[in-house]
Known about the structure:
binds iron/sulfur cluster, two-stranded antiparallel sheet
Amino acid sequence: MPLTKAEASLLSRRTGMAVEDFTWKNNGILTLLNDENTRACVFLLTSSSDVNAEGMCSVYEVRPKGCRTYPNVLNHNDEAILDEGCPHRAQFPEPTEEDSIVLLNLEEQLLHEE
Ligand code: SF4
């Protein structure tokens, strides 16, 4: 999951972890690290690598905007769609044009961070 520097700083302050300990750069974009055992986000409280396993976000109140808008993702036409990789996507409403704009703004912000 991509995140802004400001979001990473907030997570660092709340968790006491260094930003480098929960992020990596994916093509220059700051991204949340996955746990090497569960293969899920390092902040997901789970003991299994099964995507259907139960889990809880340990930083839910301060989770990045990309987490708040998921499972909406942009397709190649810059339209918001439900991520086909999300096993719970049937529980979410179809994204609207407004959702596309929210994601495009977020993408713009992420691409222009140093
Ligand atoms: S919602 Fe929480 S556990 Fe899920 S990717 Fe975001 S920070 Fe990680």
